[in-house]
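Summary for the lay section of the report: proteins are chains of building blocks that fold into shapes. Here we show the chain for Choline ABC transporter, ATP-binding protein and then a coded description of the shape we predicted for it.
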Amino acid sequence: MAVVSIENVDIVFGDNQNQTLPLMDKGHSRDEILGMSGDVVGVQNANIEVNEGEICVLMGLSGSGKSTLLRAVNGLNKIARGRCLVRDGDKMIDMAKCDDSTLRHMRTHRVSMVFQSFALMPWLTVLENVAFGLEMQGMPKEERLQKAREQLKMVSLDQWADKKPDELSGGMRQRVGLARAFVMDTDVLLMDEPFSALDPLIRSQLQDELIELQKRLNKTIIFVSHDLDEALKIGTKIAIMESARIIQEDAPEQIVLNPATEYVEKFVAHTNPLNVLCGSSLMTPIDQLVERDGHIMINDNTWLELDNGKLIKVYNSKGEMVTVDWSPETNLANSPKDAVFLVPANIAMREAVEIRYHAEQFMILMEGDQCLGVLQDHNFYHALLGKHFGRDESL
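The coded shape description reads as follows.
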């Protein structure tokens, strides 16, 4: 179910929209429009749906329009054309056209925001900062402070409740910002590069914490980032923007495997594939392996015996080989070194590499009792060398 629906949205900064919008329709570039009308095109013809529980990452270089689009979702940026719909119960509210009372309701009950600069009030304690939004809602003091304490405990800052923001580190202050957003219990959370000012180690830790919080709270999150590895790590959907336009929107793995344009291809060329690719994207499918008398050849010395796709046995010149049904709980250190691991087709590449580190053999990718393909060393090298994506030049 869509919680946020952005439909044909244009955002223009300047006083000559009547001149600028027709120029946009004629295909003029941002630079051309700036020279002709003096207006800046912030977002052009954006279309995207964000479903309940998704983390949608708006990705792009500085000036691409990602923060501009994000701020339209809570009405901070005015929309020149199009609709920005946000769910309010069983109806959708157009943030571009709602009155002040409705906008205030949406900001206090449906949409929260976390800024890059934390935006904490230095004269308030950590607890009071977290409770501030609830105070604006009119919630009684004891109730709002209790809710704020619960959120501080969730982000492991309950021992710092009575401190002032300047007594906290940057990472701790960002946790306060997260707690303040989550305590509002809104359906939608907007995050504008919230971790970009932090050291890499702290940034990675907070990304992990956000993922864990999301598993528990299941919010709908729109997250702005210029860091592709961050986007691939936390996003369930990624929209890449260039020059005010969304040029590709897809699942993280598809962004890496099938970049739509040369710009996206360059963007993903240096990303870490361990964080996004899964086994089925890397494997050699069974139907691409050599078959002889119903037996599948893995190499000159190793074979699979299948029956209508079902794995019967794995064997080599010495006889039948040991197989291990892998799960996240499998103790790899205690598994036989020469075992062949049976793994799910959607296994993460990072997990597959970890298995290969401990085992000497290839892996067989399974879906139920069906054998789909195999993972061998050359499949991993293919991905690590950046050979895993390609773009159809005919498109």
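Put simply, here is one thing we learned. The first strand starts at residue 2 and ends at 13.
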